[in-house]
TrEMBL record:
Disordered: annotated span: 1-71, 84-163
Organism: Mandrillus leucophaeus (Drill)
Keyword tags: Disulfide bond, Glycoprotein, Immunoglobulin domain, Repeat, Secreted, Signal
Keyword Repeat found: yes
Biased composition (Basic residues): 139-149
SUPFAM superfamilies recorded: Immunoglobulin
Subunit comment: Forms a complex composed of PDGFRL, TNK2 and GRB2.
Biological classification of the source: Eukaryota, Metazoa, Chordata, Craniata, Vertebrata
GO molecular function: platelet-derived growth factor receptor activity
Every Ig-like domain range: 161-242, 371-474
GO CC entries: extracellular region
Name by which UniProt lists this protein: Platelet-derived growth factor receptor-like protein
Length: 474
């Protein structure tokens, strides 16, 4: 069977017309660069699959110029829709009977081709023709994990305002430093603390306020508050703190974000415990709150233990019922009646030991709350010229004071009366202790304007109770 001629092949399938220079030299001779002009067929020219420009590309020598009539397009169409490819390369040998062109980048027998031109081939059917100006680079489908920026939730429930320490300690020669949580100083040294702010509040050991000690001074400057303590003693041991104030007119509140504090131990020879103004103190054990035996030391490294006077034994601070806090003393977390009695503390430091004052622990029978109050008159019917007394009694916690106020009939007329307040501790069995507070109002030379309601109000920190009784003119 005869193989169809090339003209027959071109009739069967339209192909691009390839115009080349003379055929390459046989193998073994030096290769001469070739120039090829690719002219698309009529169908390709009309369909617009290949587009280019001939304006800036000169035709190679030996290549006849193709007219618009020969190419099947008008002159303007031929210029716009023709593509000319020039490639200067050494022709690669083909195997006999192989019509497949060598494509640049395609591996042949495990090797990569140097360079080749693909001409006269239709685009694959599964590829869409590119439009003018369209990007010819195929984008890669690379999966990129999106980066989600971390956004801090300012409204989260666990967000709390940051606090900054505003306290500075003034050292010698005008040097400053932020004080540590605890400081140990020798008694007799002076201390100067400053807190930044135009309105500063201060807190320091109550001992300095009780006696209105002139050794301490507090001043407010334009940009900072200043606290100075001179001629310090072991009794000054305690916490010194400051805070900024937010004020609106005359009303101020504490700024929780601007605070500073330090606990200062003033060590004095022969004094392991912070001195007490008395030799005996009373500590009330309330069933609904903590109780503190204030055995505070002046030496940070001191070992402190708690002891019962009778029967004589050490009371262990087991961390469950009783714990030791160097800033407060021994803390009873859940007081009950078995804890009452007389106790004292023992401290050891530097080969020395010392015993504190004694503390009487009393269990409270009355729970926290407004005072339980009663009222009783010496007589509810009084004759003219007689004397009458009205007694108001209140029961409460041993360490909680009770204040009394009276309203009586002759008050508007400024009737002279006598009012006397007293209190004492009473034991109500099983070691329970209660505070008994009383107030007595006495009216002498009773008159008609004294007849009416006598109203008594007893008040403590938890609330108040009001009672009343009547006294008539007989």
């Amino acid at each position: 069977m005869q193989r169809p001629t090339r003209a027959t092949e071109e009739q069967q399938e339209p192909r691009a017309t390839v115009l080349t220079s003379p055929s390459p030299p046989p193998p073994g001779e030096s290769s001469i660069p070739s120039q090829r002009l690719v002219q698309p067929p009529l169908s390709t020219c009309r369909s617009g699959r290949w587009r280019g420009s001939l304006g800036s590309l000169p035709l190679p020598s030996g290549v006849a110029e193709t007219s618009a009539a020969e190419s099947g397009c008008h002159l303007s169409t031929a210029v716009a829709d023709s593509v000319v490819e020039f490639q200067v390369t050494s022709p690669s040998p083909r195997s006999p009977g192989s019509d497949k062109p060598h494509v640049h980048g395609e591996q042949n027998n495990g090797q990569t081709a140097d360079s080749a031109a693909v001409t006269g081939q239709h685009l694959p059917k599964n590829k869409r023709p590119k439009e003018p100006g369209e990007n010819r680079i195929k984008p890669t489908n690379k999966k990129v994990k999106p980066k989600i920026p971390k956004i801090k939730d300012r409204d989260s429930a666990d967000s709390t305002p940051k606090t900054q320490s505003i306290m500075m300690q003034v050292l010698d020669k005008g040097r400053f430093q932020k004080p540590a949580a605890t400081l140990s100083l020798l008694a007799g040294q002076s201390v100067e603390l400053r807190c930044k702010g135009s309105r500063i509040g201060w807190s320091y050991p109550a001992y300095l306020d009780t006696f209105k000690d002139s050794r301490i001074s507090v001043k407010q400057n334009e940009r900072y508050g200043q606290l100075t303590l001179v001629n310090s003693t072991s009794a000054d041991t305690g916490e010194f703190s400051c805070w900024g104030q937010l004020c609106s007119g005359y009303i101020c509140r504490k700024d929780e974000t601007k605070t500073g504090s330090t606990y200062i131990f003033f060590t004095e020879k022969g004094e392991l415990f912070v001195p007490s103004p008395s030799y005996f103190d009373v500590v009330y054990l309330n069933p609904d709150r903590q109780a503190v035996v204030p055995c505070r030391v002046t030496v940070l490294s001191a070992k402190v233990t708690l002891h019962r006077e009778f029967p004589a034994k050490e009371i262990p601070a087991n961390g469950t019922d009783i714990v030791y806090d160097m800033k407060r003393g021994f803390v009873y977390l859940q007081p009950h009646s078995e804890h009452q009695g007389v106790v004292y503390c023992r401290a050891e430091a530097g080969g020395r030991s010392q015993i504190s004052i004694k503390y009487q622990l009393l269990y409270v029978a009355v729970p926290s709350g407004p005072p339980s109050t009663t009222i009783l008159a010496s007589s509810n019917k009084v004759k003219s010229g007689d004397d009458v007394s009205v007694l108001c009694t209140a029961l409460g916690e041993p360490d909680v004071e009770v204040e009394f106020t009276w309203i009586f009939p002759g008050q508007k007329d400024e009737r002279p009366v006598t009012i006397q307040d007293t209190w004492r501790l009473i034991h109500r069995g099983l070691g329970h202790t209660t505070r008994l507070s009383q107030s007595v109002i006495t009216v002498e030379d009773f008159e008609t304007i004294d007849a009416g309601y006598y109203i008594c109000t007893a008040q403590n920190l938890q609330g108040q109770t009001t009672v009343a009784t009547t006294v008539e003119f007989s």
